[in-house]
Amino acid sequence: MRSKLMVGNWKMNGSLAANASLVAELLSGMSAITCRVAVCVPSAYLAQMQVLLSGSPIGYGAQDVSDHASGAYTGEVSASMLQDFAVRYCIVGHSERRLYHAESDVLVAVKAQRALAAGITPIVCVGETQAEREAGQTEAVVKRQLAAVIHANGHCISEIVVAYEPVWAVGTGLTATPEQAQQVHAVLRAQLQAASSHADRVSILYGGSMNAGNAAQLLAQPDVDGGLIGGAALKAPDFLSMLKTASR
Ligand code: PGA
Predict the structure, then answer these.
(1) Mean of the pLDDT values across residues 204-213?
(2) Which atom of ligand 1 is nearest to the CA of 228?
């Protein structure tokens, strides 16, 4: 069985002082936690995480990576730079990047490739918009998004993490029902199985307004292997409560 993986996505939040107190509170609550845990932080704070979290039960990661190796790409951060900070995970293709930075399926697939080549586990986000769900396109959209990543990463595909994040549920307070989440996760699992005999290793996380109140039901679904948590990961008591739920 895959042990649950709970990842906090801090997005563009935090400060040196706020991060230090959040991490201290999380570390002090980790004694009963058996699930895998990580926080994905702004790149500016990776050095701080390396100091605070190295050797701890909390892994850390970035929220994006460049599709280029190096060079004249002002503002971008390469996979080898992330490697310098011993980053374990990197989110790629988050819906906010697809939306505000026009990231395509192919670009996201290349980013996943860059991460994998640097020994970093990409957390590949897929998910449909409200309009796509209403038009009955949910399965087609998530399959198209994942297919690009499978196509570009073939034999390494069992090394990725997938996060199903319905766009309409991210940061809105709306959550997919456990049944809706399971249905999409099962589709993604089948797609991974068709691509790799090791697909059962892949953790498929749910994300989108997951919180201390709804985590248990979502995590009880057979193909929901954990969560990618935004808002609720910024409050230590809430995140710890979800980690406890995932450790049962
Ligand atoms: P949310 O964000 O939990 O605040 O909805 C999840 C995410 O965007 O990863």
Answers:
(1) 96
(2) 9
